[in-house]
Amino acid sequence: MAVVLCISPGGQTPLSALEALGHQLIQVTFDPQQLADAPRHDVVLLDCRHNLMGAKAVARILNAAGWSRPLMLVANESVLAAVSAEWGLQDFVLEGASLAEVDARVRILLDAKPTQQSEVKNSTGLTIDLASYTAKIAGKTLDLTFKEFELLRHLNENPGRVFSREQLLSEVWGYDYFGGTRTVDVHIRRLRAKLGEHESLIDTVRNVGYRLNPDGQPEENS
């Protein structure tokens, strides 16, 4: 069964009956902070029935942040003319669709093979599994939120490269994110706490920003 992230203006999904089939539903609103703190999930359901422009802005944020989970829109006929590939969706379902149809569409999305490399490893000792959306270090799985995972993945793909807070905010959260750079500091602090004895992998470069230290040892300017 799937972990389904349901994004709707009021935080109430029209497809709550999916829980009866064993799926786990996580409900959040369009609020950028709730999106950033969303836990790991398998599929995203985005409700665009009653706030089309708001839903489209959320879709842009997801695409800019590089979310790799399949996206399904929940729509009604009145908004279909505005839906296009620009949203980055993999499927859509009309309001009023049967539970069996929605379940089948979710299962098809889950069964689709990822088009990207499923696992990324390098000398930092981290293993980033894009297929299962998990990160491990020294064989131990890290309990990360979606945005913590995305931030760690981004740093891990560029070991040794220093990113300013502004760069991380735009490249991980997306240009449409309205939060300040303090958000980056908070997520870095949480990541370090979860890395435990390996916290020195994330290095602070004074007056610049952060990097993933390939040697896992703090620098003198940290």
Strand content: 15-25%
List unreliable stretches of 5+ residues: 113-118, 218-222
Sketch the topology as an H/E string, one letter per element.
EEHEHEEHEEEEHEHHEE
Q: Report mean pLDDT, rounded to a whole number.
A: 81
The coarse overall form would be globular
Distance between the termini: 44 Å
Strand order within the widest beta sheet: 2-1-3-4-5
The percent range for helix content is: 25-40%
Q: How can the largest sheet be summarized?
A: 5 strands, parallel
Number of strands: 12
Give me the secondary-structure category.
Answer: alpha/beta
Radius of gyration: 18 Å
Number of DSSP helices?
6
Account of the 3D structure:
The protein has 222 residues and is of the alpha/beta class. Helix content is 29%, strand content 21%. It has helices spanning 32-36, 52-64, 99-111, 146-156, 165-173, 182-195; strands at 3-7, 24-28, 43-47, 71-75, 91-94, 119-121, 126-129, 134-137, 140-141, 163-164, 202-205, 209-212. It has a 5-stranded parallel beta sheet with strand order 2-1-3-4-5, sandwiched between helices. Strands 6-7-8-9 form a 4-stranded antiparallel beta sheet, with helices on one face. Strand 11 (202-205) and strand 12 (209-212) form a beta hairpin. Helix 4 crosses helix 5 (165-173) and helix 4 (146-156) packs across helix 6 (182-195). The longest helix has 14 residues, at 182-195. The chain is globular. Mean pLDDT is 81; it is low at 113-118 and 218-222.
